Prior knowledge:
alpha/beta, Rossmann fold, 2 domains, 7-stranded parallel sheet, 6-stranded parallel sheet, 13% strand, globular, disordered N terminus
Amino acid sequence: MSSVRADNRSGRASEALSASSSHLLPFKEAKAKGWHAALSAPMNRRPRVEPQLQNNNPIIAIGNYDFRPSGTVVKSIEIAAACAKAGLPVELWVVRDEGALRARVPAGVPVFETGSAMRLHNRGLDLALNIPALAAALRRRRPTLFLSGGNHLHLAARIALGLSGRRRSIQLGARASNSAHHGKATRWQALIGTWSNRLKFGGADFIVAVSHALAAEIQTALPKKSVGIIANGVDLAKVDRLVSAPFAHHFLDEQCDRPPLLVTIGRIVRQKGFDLLVSALGRLDDIGARLMIIGDGDSTKIAALKSLAEAEGVAHRVALLGYQDNPFAILSRADLFVSASRWEGASNALIEALACGLPIVATDCPTGNREVVEAGPYGTLAPVENVEGLANAIRAELKTKRSKNEQRAGAHSRSLDRCLESWVKLLEAWPEKFVDQFPSHLADTCEQPWGR
Length: 452
């Protein structure tokens, strides 16, 4: 990418925004001052591969804690890859350069590890411990834009940028990935969620949410800020390639009169509600439904889930598959996808299930699930944290015969290509902040917004 003068950058920003005027909120013209010619030396003594950039190129840094399997990390890698393909100088910043998704980072995207040699086992505590190291990295490398990839990083990024002494020259973007309201919230819990949003997003120059409902939630907490939407997308071509890949499991051995097979995807954490789903399975003894859980978790949470399955008498009908690089081969062989989440932002797994032709049962949690399920409709909504209600929704949806082709068509309005194109246009224009006010001018970046 060659050196660009300020007037050229302004022209590119205007061109990018006018080309997508029906999909993106307008932005103020981006400032071109303060771009830095080259990267500084690395922060610590660990060997690093330094990207070779030409002079006067700004740097987009996209941050996460590590590369553990999660929708947030997947999207950050996809956004970075799309930016690199478009010729934008981009880096992935992580506190810890580790995790199963590290292998998905393309060769053209440099990875910069900000964490110090000292570390704590708990992710939240280790992230807090390394805020000064992130501040030092920002001060030293001076990206023009730091995009915080998920909710876990927003507050740490805000504090680190303040400590760096570079607040005026580094823009801070926040990709809102999850609701701060966790399931059935009391009045005080709702108030805490509002203050959490203010802390996480109050210092951002621009905010992009992954669903309409999440944007509204943040807007309520921060009425003076405008929030844009870029919905998650799925790589339909990749799904089509991988659905027919072989996958063997004894749950799939029976060809005729097989009991219903349910599948769910996510990290084994409280948010995903797998405990509720296992308990709901115990209410489906009469149909012998089986459950496959795709996702990793720490050993304590996995042991607790296994103990619950034993207590419910369904251990023989639950398979914990761990992380799977190709979940589509499993989804395509199941009868129903179930999301029992207590809260979300916008579930990638729901869209992936649709792309595989699966009907859906999802809790009506904050936020995003309703937008997907009711758009078709493509499934059944269940009450949040209600085992009986979840079991009843599963039973009802299994009796509803939905067309696989119609389910697959539901994923087309959220193709990955469209959504990554929106991210590239946004980051290429170097937005200072959104200028239109939510909700009157709120526009989804997908060509066919759901739920409208």
